Amino acid sequence: MILDSVRIQAVELINEAVASGAARFRACAELEISVRTYQRWIVDGTIKTDGRPSAQRPEPKNKLSEVERGNLLAVFNSDEFKSLPPSQIVPALADRGVYIASESTCYRVLHEKKLQNSRGRSQIKERKSPTTHCATGPNQVWCWDITWLPGPVKGLHFYLYLILDIFSRKIVGWEIHDDESAENASTLIRKTHLKESVRNNPLVLHSDNGSPMKGSSMLETLYSLGVASSFSRPRVSNDNAYAESIFKTCKYRPDYPYKGFLTIDEARDWVLKFSHWYNFNHKHSGIKYVTPNQRHSGLADKVLANRKEVYQRAKERNPERWSGDIRNWDLPEEVYLNPEREMDASYHTADIW
User: Fold this and answer.
1) Are residues 40 and 171 in the same domain?
2) For the chain, how are helix, strand and coil distributed in percent, rounded to 5?
3) What is the C-alpha separation between 194 and 203, in angstroms, rounded?
4) Are 119 and 83 in contact, with CB atoms under 8 Å apart?
5) Which of 57, 273, 317, 334 has a 20 to 30 Å separation from 10 between CA atoms?
6) Sequence-ordered alpha helix ranges (H) in 159-202
7) pTM over the 0.85 mark
């Protein structure tokens, strides 16, 4: 709706342009209005004001009274109908010889009272926020999961158990078994815990909600080792995004035998080579393209400092090729598992790849 002051100013500008010799349709086009609109604004040579904002409009004759609205809400919020939509309630009332209002009117009244959706037991429960953990160094937060590796025939799989350090992205432990079980997971976590020498350091182990992750033997092992357990929200796969990411990296390797491993020993040999490549040769995009082992062992800072010098020298040799500072090679001091948005607004899921 165009305000009267704007309308008056527009008409005056058009009239001034026409008086100066401009065509009326061109003057109107400059103000992005049509000639017909300009003509509607002029009545007997004067500018017509817009009375719509202050116009007194009669109430519709078919409008529900306050008593009728109250009765409608009382019926719809009763124990019998509070979990049903109007499309179910209106016919049910008609079968009893009762008519309150049309379905569309019922929907409109419920919408005005914010009762149209999710009433009664169907109300949407408050969603639980993902568990957030922060790692400022290696061996503080681990995540783990199990994935299938194809076997020699369709329907036969081997199971890769893998533990990843989220700070360094290093594979700190893995095993392959014929089945999924909490006992196998317990054995792996004990071996990895001993190998990484984290006996006296606080450690969080994050996983999804599978039975091997929540089995009694696994939970007892974590308790005896002093490891705090953390779990994803039910049916939310990206709460364990680091583990899902490395599984994709694994299965998209050029030499991955997508037709299947003939034996479990063959699968173990392949994963052994993959884990060595991933830890010692793979320049990880999530950690400024240093290897996970360099980040885990504390060598990454030296590597990145050298890169900064190389870039700085290149800029000094050809300053005209640089429009700003050199590339940022600084690693974040904190790595979050499922960071809260207000904690780190610049975080992107892609950073984990």
Assistant:
1) no
2) 45, 15, 40
3) 13
4) yes
5) 57
6) 182-195
7) no
Rounded mean pLDDT of the chain?
86
Residue 250's CB is within 10 A of a number of other CB atoms, namely: 20
Report helix angle 241-251 to 264-280, nearest 10: 110
Contact 35, 28 (CB under 8 A): yes
Do 23 and 87 lie in one domain? The reply is no
Q: What is the pLDDT of residues 20-71, one digit of tens each?
A: 999 999 999 998 888 888 888 887 767 766 655 566 778 788 888 899 999 9
3-state secondary structure (DSSP) of residue 107: helix
Alpha carbon distance 238, 232 (integer Å): 8
Question: How far is residue 186 from each of residues 191, 217, 219, 234, 272, measured CA to CA in Å?
Answer: 9, 7, 8, 22, 20
CB–CB of 264/161 below 8 Å? no
**CA neighbor of 301 nearest in space, from 336, 331, 281:** 331
Nearest Cα neighbor of 147 from 194, 171, 196, 180 is: 180
Closest CA to 180 of 228, 142, 215: 215
Query: Tell me: the pLDDT tens digits for 134-166?
Result: 999 999 999 999 999 999 998 899 999 999 999
Residue 127 has pLDDT above 70, yes or no: no
Q: Nearest-CA neighbor of 230 among 191, 248, 204?
A: 204
Tally the domains of the chain: 3
In a shared domain, residues 112 and 247: no
Residue at a domain's end among 120, 143, 160: 120
Count of residues in the chain = 353
Domain membership of residue 20 as a residue range: 4-47
Residue-level pLDDT at 350: 38
